[in-house]
Amino acid sequence: MAAQITPPPSSSSSSLAFSSEFNVWKPRRCCFFKWVSQVCPRIRPTNHFRIKSSNGHPLNAVSMQGGMDGSPLAKGINPEEQEEFFIDILDTEALSALSITVVGASGDLAKKKIFPALFALYYEDCLPKNFIVFGYARTKLTDEELRNIISTTLTCRIDKRENCKDKMEQFLKRCFYHSGEYNSEENFAELDSKLKKKEAGKLSNRLFYLSIPPNIFVDVVRCASMMASSANGWTRVIVEKPFGRDSESSAELTRCLKKYLTEDQIFRIDHYLGKELVENLSVLRFSNLIFEPLWSRNYIRNVQFIFSEDFGTEGRGGYFDNYGIIRDIMQNHLLQILALFAMETPVSLDAEDIRNEKVKVLRSMKPLELEDVIIGQYKGHNKGGRAYPGYTDDSTVPKNSITPTFAAAALFINNARWDGVPFLMKAGKALHRKRAEIRVQFRHVPGNLYKRNFGTDLDKATNELVLRVQPDEAIYLKINNKVPGLGMRLDRSDLNLLYRARYPTEIPDAYERLLLDAIAGERRLFIRSDELDAAWSLFTPLLKELEAKKISPELYPYGSRGPVGAHYLAAKYNVRWGDVGGEDD
Ligand SMILES: NC(=O)C1=CN([C@@H]2O[C@H](COP(=O)(O)OP(=O)(O)OC[C@H]3O[C@@H](n4cnc5c(N)ncnc54)[C@H](OP(=O)(O)O)[C@@H]3O)[C@@H](O)[C@H]2O)C=CC1
Ligand SMILES: O=C1O[C@H](COP(=O)(O)O)[C@@H](O)[C@H](O)[C@H]1O
Question: 251 lies in a domain?
Fold first, then answer.
């Protein structure tokens, strides 16, 4: 996948000119204005030279040869040149083709998330004019069979919207299927021929989404890069989690992938980074004067990252038993949110500036120790006349499994901003509800004039900022106020930004944002390899110790609030979980 000058695509040679500066075939400026009105509505008349990625930066959704996979802005071109460049980008896009191959297309994630996200992008006119989607897996299917399978889940977000049915039909016509083995160069060469045929000689940009078990990542990357890379555009690969199971296996996976791909081509996905409220975390903090001055050990007592699901591992026990909740949720989703929460102000919104700051936070953290962690596993439970299975009742889970389905942990960041502040994480399956949130508990008001009105429990009077990631997205701040009337009674109220009340439109799924960014070459929401190394360094010693010492998890009933040990862990650091026992329980 190295840079090389290739001839322009035959069908468009008359409309292209070679730019030696950018090492790319650029379009002549003929049909730009006709075309611009047809592209993604993100391009408005007032700023129609810019396609926006999720950080508001112009996209480089343009065909470029291997080595030029970065933003033109990085080349330091001036604003007029940029404008020209973006006009050219739009033209180039009309003359190029985007091929997305979903590897593992017969699987759960592809059906549940990837195809619906692609359809939503198509519905919103956010995909380039010439795009196709190929499903690839071993299961033998025809194009029509794939379309029938995915059509059942495509409607999830926008089925009530205008023309959804027509749009769906149009989208499905762009979906194709190729059956092949994951380690067969020959099968990937066949895929390449099919892709070429559909791309019809246009500049081709290719995105491979590895929605497959991790043990076959390298085979697929080898075959795809050798046999099905784009010859004249970019080739990128989205890699699903789990990315290794400890520091060594993760480093080995990166080493193997880098035999075939450059770091710039690898998009390690963490879908929590694509969630609306996680995106809003930085906006809230860096665009509101009132928060940033409070964002440190001086005013924040503790921060909590909480993930709970009201269902077990049903159907995914085979995968889960090899990983457990710490690897499944904490080491990636919750730690990524923590890094965004705690990082210093980045130099800019550029992906590398943000990722540099995240790495610094991760590298300032103390690796987790056993004494700062508790683990649990759900057991069978009868409730309301219904029997709920225990984790080990799953036929794909060994009967004597001690894999944790719940964990709580206290982490610390050894830097000037956060010294001594506990960052608590809690993640569990088969709990009493589904929820993900960030809770920031502030310190007590020193010399509080009203302390008598709160009784002895001053914790009840501390301000708490909550970002509810899901469900029912919201940001609310718990404050103290006076109850109206002649007396002086105090109350706790929420200043509440409830998304469904404020923005009555549906919120895009995380996979939509992430796919759009991968297509745009925007890496901000993907995990860089040094970030991943730093993340694994924090968890690997603990994971090894848990396994070596065969630590048994505390059992908790399916549908409960989890093991009581989580409360003792919090109490050790003078913390109460904000999600239990109070108004938000
Ligand atoms: N499902 C989810 O909610 C989430 C999944 N992920 C990750 O995404 C990836 C895909 O997940 P999911 O769709 O659930 O996975 P699946 O188990 O459904 O696997 C996807 C496809 O891969 C092929 N496959 C499965 N097992 C093997 C095997 N042992 N050897 C070779 N091929 C196999 C199958 O296709 P065929 O037999 O047709 O070749 C299958 O349809 C995984 O890495 C997973 O960890 C991440 C977050 C959430
Ligand atoms: O990555 C994973 O995430 C899902 C939860 O994702 P959500 O977007 O539905 O909150 C989790 O169920 C799964 O175990 C894990 O692998």
Answer: no
